[in-house]
Amino acid sequence: MTELLTSNFQVMPDPRIKNEEQYRALLEKGYSKEKSARIANTPDAGVKGGKAKPYDEWTKAELYQQARRVGIAGRSYMSKKNLIYSLRNN
Fold it and tell me: Domain count of the chain?
């Protein structure tokens, strides 16, 4: 009975993931779920050619919003420098 359920079970795409194809490819490469989600959800995830500006050029408000999107704890107490560090190393 369990085999029937699992064989007919279809995984629904996660609505929180912007680029599902990229997310799955990163998971297959061995990235963690968190890191894959963060990369697949960046504002310029689908843009090729390095169009996203570096974190150093973002405002603190933009960095805070990105940290919020990826779930970085303690972001409200962080300086711009700490937000950049956390986004790069989370």
Answer: 2
